[in-house]
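Box 3.1. Reading complex inputs
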Amino acid sequence: MPQVLTAREVEALLAAGQSLPTGALLTPSARDLVDERKRAASSAKAAVVVATPVTVVTSTPAAAPAPAAGAPSIPDHEYRWTPGSDPRTPDEIQRFFNSPPIEELKRRICDMGRRLWLKDYTDGNGGNITIRVGDNLALCTPTLICKGFMTPADMCLVDLDGNQLAGTRVRTSEAKTHFGIMKRQPAAKACVHAHPPHATAFAISNATVPSCLIPEAEIFLGKIGVAKYETPGTPAMAEEVGRVGVDHQAVLMQNHGVIVWGKDVEDAYWKMENIDAYCRTVGFAASLGTGLHRFGPDKLKDLIALRQKLGMPDPRANLKEAELADNSDFRPGAICQPTSVPAPSEPATDADIEAFFRKFTEVVLRQLNG
Ligand SMILES: [Zn+2]
């Protein structure tokens, strides 16, 4: 069987100065990465040939492969820049910041912000959005703004250390948390952070989100990561979220909310909808008290393979079926609902206590077996 390489594996091979194995298959993200490197190498060569002084080119998204006339296609909104072409002087930065492709991205951020707010995923000034637009550049939402009512003029341009380069409003203090992921994971071109109530309920509980329940969640969210609580906006938070986010596209931030990433801002936003809908459904199902019906690790393997085909990482990809079956963290019967034993109206006798424990043990065993 031919070897399948992900973008991360290709990145590692190229960083080590090795060439790709003959006959290896590339995931879509890996293919994009190789194309990007080829473009960078050929533009570097061209610059040497014409011996022009170093000029900074305004980045524009590379054109997606043109489909044959009239052929159906999928719109591609991923922003691709030429590596090494970040604008540097104040004039270049302003021209870039006001260029048509960047204006389009600002409008898309406003659209996603409106959708976050309409879905009740952000409250007050909560949530923030970033799109990577260069080697060391990102667009981001400003601080202290309702995500439902932003305009393109509110957007900011920052470097990946969070220094503001353009925009009239002050950038969000949580941008650095997003960059914790972007600096480690080149496929993360956009991040969305919000506080969707159902997923955030899991983030503040001791329950782990269970898997093997709904196939779409396995494909589009993959294994949901959990970042330990750190104070919002601190370097420790960026470090922790980056550590978890490199391999997980959807991350529950303990005692806080959710951060998701994708190849473009809508792709990332969809994952916010996916995780909140999943957590809401799981919560309802758990409250039915009949246990959760899971599909097996053999089926989970199929879904993980599909996810990889779409170029999305999954830390479970190399696990064996027996390891995938280890899915016992979530005890809906014990955690999400009280047992059905009524509180005794009179002081409990030994027989009452024994009956309670027998009943309790039955419920727990049923949940374990269910
Ligand atoms: Zn937050």
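In summary: Residues 126, 193, 195, 232, 256-257 surround zinc ion (CB under 6 Å).
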